[in-house]
């Protein structure tokens, strides 16, 4: 007997075969809502490295943009640390679920696509957070996604970027499609500079900070 592929990979392959890099996320969230699939990245609590960073960096009302907000745990963590958070996801069901989970939230949850973001977000955020979203799209979309990400950062701001590290993981058919060190460093473009780059979780992921 062969082991069935997890639902996210099955949905991803069908979506990609249609030339659509992101449609499978909405299908996965709605299947999960029906109890027919699991969303593998759902933790029910914030990313621990982001939580630790937020404790050391209170927002004091400054603007933060969270990419790929999923069910909202990371966005709420940043809001609790005093950041004025805009959090977006390409999957409408994820955005609706985040709003429903946190009805009193001060976070502005928005449906938007990193590959075609609102123009007013250009250079608009003091903090930009990208955690394991770009790696969930095929590599053909990476350069465009990284350029959009870099474009959000305001002068003097900070971007936090974390992706699975290709150098420390066995090659597997995606998703995810891990990042090389050079791909992480490529966020430093168009006036953005790399501040630090380390591996976390025993080398499994990169954690990089940038400024403009
Ligand atoms: C692998 S999950 C990671 C979620 C969260 N960042 C975390 O660390 O758990 C990727 C998330 O990004 C969203 N996403 C994927 N492509 C996107 C895009 N082009 N624009 C906005 N959100 C996207 C998906 O819907 C999904 O919620």
UniProtKB/TrEMBL annotation:
Any single GO BP term: methylation
Gene Ontology MF terms: methyltransferase activity
Keywords: Methyltransferase, S-adenosyl-L-methionine, Transferase
Name of protein: Class I SAM-dependent methyltransferase
Gene3D superfamilies: Vaccinia Virus protein VP39
InterPro entries attached to this UniProt entry: Methyltransf_25 (IPR041698), SAM-dependent_MTases_sf (IPR029063)
Annotated PANTHER family: METHYLTRANSFERASE, UBIQUINONE BIOSYNTHESIS O-METHYLTRANSFERASE, MITOCHONDRIAL
Record's keyword annotation contains Transferase: yes
CDD domains, per database record: AdoMet_MTases
Keyword Methyltransferase on entry: yes
Domain Methyltransferase positions: 66-157
């Amino acid at each position: 007997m062969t082991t069935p592929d997890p639902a996210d990979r099955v949905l991803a392959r069908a979506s990609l075969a249609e030339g659509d890099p992101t449609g499978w996320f909405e299908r996965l969230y709605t299947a999960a809502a029906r109890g027919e699939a699991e969303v593998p990245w759902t933790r029910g609590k914030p990313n621990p490295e982001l939580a630790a960073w937020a404790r050391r960096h209170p927002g004091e009302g400054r603007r933060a943009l969270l990419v790929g907000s999923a069910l909202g745990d990371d966005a709420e963590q940043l809001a609790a640390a005093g950041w004025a958070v805009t959090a977006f996801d390409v999957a409408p069901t994820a955005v609706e679920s985040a709003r429903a989970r946190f009805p009193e939230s001060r976070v502005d949850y928005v449906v938007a696509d990193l590959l075609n973001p609102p123009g007013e977000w250009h250079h608009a955020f003091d903090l930009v957070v990208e955690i394991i979203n770009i790696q969930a799209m095929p590599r053909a979309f990476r350069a465009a996604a990284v350029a959009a990400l870099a474009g959000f950062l305001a002068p003097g701001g900070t971007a936090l970027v974390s992706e699975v590290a290709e150098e420390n993981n066995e090659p597997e058919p995606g998703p995810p499609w891990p990042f090389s060190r050079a791909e992480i460093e490529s966020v430093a473009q168009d006036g953005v500079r790399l501040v630090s780059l380390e591996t976390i979780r025993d080398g499994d992921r990169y954690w990089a900070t940038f400024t403009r």
